[in-house]
């Protein structure tokens, strides 16, 4: 009961080593790796998340809508109308022949 507890000073080198180890283990822990059973045995593969969130879908739809609007506006300014899958002029002149 009369023993003295010695406090040990940790060197800077040891502190930085532990700090680096903590960062490295944190990075490794966040990698999405899953074991896959294959005919050759168990393999580790990196998961590729292809999640489409509601926000991502809205952003994509808005971008596509802006692009369609912009292209249509430019076509109308040039005097061209979208007629099904082909383009026809508003003045109904025959298309140029080659």
Can you give a write-up of this model?
With 98 residues, the protein is of the alpha+beta class. The chain has a domain at 54-89. The protein contains two helices and four strands, in the order αββαββ. It has helices spanning 12-30, 54-78, and strands at 33-38, 41-46, 80-83, 86-89. Strand 3 and strand 4 form a beta hairpin. The protein starts with 11 loop residues before the first helix and ends in a 9-residue tail after the last strand.
Give the helices and strands, then pairings.
Blueprint: H1 12-30, E1 33-38, E2 41-46, H2 54-78, E3 80-83, E4 86-89
Provide the helix percentage. Answer: 40-55%
* Structural Rg: 32 Å
Oligomer: single chain
Low-confidence segments, ≥5 residues, pLDDT <50?
none
Overall SS class: alpha+beta
Output mean pLDDT: 79
What is the strand tally? Answer: 4
The strand line-up of the biggest sheet is 1-2
The number of helical runs is 2
Please state the overall shape, judged from the principal axes of the Cα atoms. elongated
User: Which percent range describes the beta-strand content?
Assistant: 15-25%
Write the H/E string, N to C.
Answer: HEEHEE
In short:
This protein is of the alpha+beta class. 45% of the residues lie in helices and 20% in strands. It is elongated.
Features:
single chain; 98 residues; alpha+beta; two-stranded antiparallel ribbon; 2 helices; 4 strands
């Amino acid at each position: 009961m009369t023993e003295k507890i010695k406090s040990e000073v940790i060197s800077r080198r040891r502190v930085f080593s532990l700090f680096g180890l903590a960062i490295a283990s944190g990075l490794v822990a966040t990698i999405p790796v899953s074991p896959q059973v294959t005919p050759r045995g168990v393999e580790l593969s990196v998961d590729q998340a292809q999640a489409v969130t509601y926000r991502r879908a809205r952003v994509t739809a808005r971008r596509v809508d802006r692009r369609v609007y912009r292209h249509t506006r430019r076509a109308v300014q040039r005097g061209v109308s979208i007629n099904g899958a082909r383009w026809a002029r508003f003045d109904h002149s025959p298309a140029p022949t080659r």
